[in-house]
UniProtKB/TrEMBL annotation:
Highest taxon above the source species: Bacteria
Keywords: Membrane, Transmembrane, Transmembrane helix
Residues of the full protein shown: 482 to 765 of 765
Domain EAL: 24-280
UniProt protein name: Diguanylate cyclase/phosphodiesterase
Residue ranges that the Swiss-Prot or TrEMBL entry lists as coiled coil: none
């Protein structure tokens, strides 16, 4: 009977796996169509400088709007786009579109833009040239572009990924900035921070102290990351900031910038233009 139950479980597992694979294959097909039908959008979330609470930058975040359907969040398709390689054309599009839009904001207000780059994109031999071409065509100064990568891009099971390092080093020599996204959620050793071509740490939102409680453990972790960054001359950006208490703490600890629902959700281009304009002209 135990054997029987085991087999049944196995069949169930097989079915689930097949179901998942089918769903992923369908998503790949729909993503291919989405590219030709122009169904992607970029939303922008403000990055606020903590000393004066002005918007100094935005993060570009992709959205998928299939005709007549609900908007699909990135967590539902980025993984599949990575596995299938479609992240390469999709990621190029995000980079081109967000740099084009940000060039206008940058001319008027000095705003910078952060763009997420997936490991798959950094394995392309032409990635570095693509970025330089996008900057030339958009007119965005290199200093106004931040590429966000995760820890795993540069260090994979203890090994440094040479292709990614060489792209990022070349781009940094042109003035482009690099940020480690979701910092603290990876498993790589800290030693890599000293040697890798990076400029900023984005403190993952899981480190933000829970609202309404002292949450001393979280405070200690945030302080430790900020001090570590300061010692290595890296800038700090706190992600997922949702409360005024978190803002007070981050400012006390010397964090440079904050991003989160407390200031604004990611918004469409037109709304972002208004937020940036208002922030630039506000009297404080
Ligand atoms: P991420 O790069 O860490 O982006 C931050 C995510 O946190 C965004 O989710 C944002 O909406 C969300 N967030 C911001 N502030 C708060 C807050 O105060 N509270 C909470 N609960 N969440 C907050 P989103 O837009 O759904 O993106 C999810 C992830 O998808 C991104 O995480 C990034 O890893 C990936 N992604 C988004 N756009 C792109 C893209 O163009 N290319 C690639 N490769 N990945 C992308
Ligand atoms: Mg990011
Ligand atoms: Mg992040
Ligand atoms: Mg995060």
């Amino acid at each position: 009977a135990a054997k029987e139950a085991g087999r049944n479980q196995m069949i169930l597992f097989d079915d689930e796996l097949r179901e998942k694979r089918l769903a992923a294959a369908r998503t790949v097909e729909r993503l291919r169509e989405a590219i030709t039908r122009d169904e992607f959008l970029v939303y922008y979330q403000p990055l606020v400088r903590l000393t004066d609470e002005r918007i100094t930058g935005v993060e570009a975040l992709i959205r998928w709007q299939p005709a007549g359907e609900k908007m699909v969040p990135p967590d539902r398709f980025i993984g599949i786009a990575e596995d299938s390689g479609l992240i390469v054309p999709i990621g190029s599009w995000v980079l081109r579109e967000s740099c084009r839009v940000a060039a206008g904001w940058n001319r008027r207000h000095g705003t910078v833009v952060s763009v997420n780059v997936s490991p798959r994109q950094l394995r392309e031999p032409d990635f570095g040239l693509l970025v330089l071409d996008v900057l030339r065509t958009s007119g965005l100064p290199p200093e106004a572009l931040i590429l966000e990568i995760t820890e795993g891009v540069l260090v994979n099971s203890g090994k440094v990924t040479e292709q990614a390092i060489s792209h990022l080093s070349m781009l940094r020599s042109h003035g482009i900035k690099v940020a480690i996204d979701d910092f603290g959620t990876g498993y790589s050793s800290l030693a890599y921070l000293r040697d890798l071509p990076i400029d900023n740490l984005k403190i993952d939102r899981s480190f933000m102290p829970a609202p309404g409680s002292p949450d001393l453990a979280a405070q200690t972790l945030v302080k430790t990351i900020i001090d570590l960054a300061a010692g290595l001359r890296l800038g700090t950006i706190a992600e997922g900031v949702e409360t005024a208490e978190q803002v007070v703490l981050l400012r006390e600890l010397g964090c440079d910038r904050a991003q989160g629902f407390f200031y604004s959700r990611p918004v469409p281009e037109a709304d972002a233009t208004r937020l940036i304009q208002d922030s630039a002209t506000a009297i404080r």
